[in-house]
Amino acid sequence: MGNTMARNENLSDFYEPVAGAVGRMSFDELNDSTGFARGERFETEEEVRAYFTVENMESMFGCVECTPESMTEMADLVIRKGWHVVPGVGR
């Protein structure tokens, strides 16, 4: 499973606030919280959803305070914003 793309300062251009606390997170805030953009890019939406699980967060960061619902919201945000497949970023 790929992990994502390298950080790019211009990705904040893609941020649009949406309803809900998770929906208002910027690319940098979400990446700082979850590390989703610190490795290889995800290749599919399924890989994004597999990354954003309570079990995966606990395996990477130890004890974390997250819920399945918040993980689903985070995955949905990454997918909706296209942050997992931004052209020309990474590799």
Structure described in brief:
The chain has 91 residues and is mainly α. It contains four helices and no strands.
Features:
single chain; 91 residues; mainly alpha; 41% helix
Please tell me about this protein's structure.
There is one protein chain. This protein has one domain. The protein is 41% helix and 0% strand. The protein has 4 helices and no strands. α2 runs antiparallel to α4 (68-81). The radius of gyration is 12 Å and the shape is globular. The two termini are 16 Å apart. Mean pLDDT is 75; it is low at 1-19.
| Count of all domains | 1
How would you state the average pLDDT, rounded? 75
Q: Beta-sheet strand percentage? A: under 5%
Tally of helical segments: 4
Structural class: mainly alpha
What's the Cα radius of gyration?
Answer: 12 Å
Low-confidence stretches: 1-19
**N-to-C terminal Cα separation, in Å?**
16 Å
Q: Count the beta strands.
A: 0
Helix and strand run: HHHH
Topology:
Blueprint: H1 27-34, H2 45-51, H3 54-61, H4 68-81
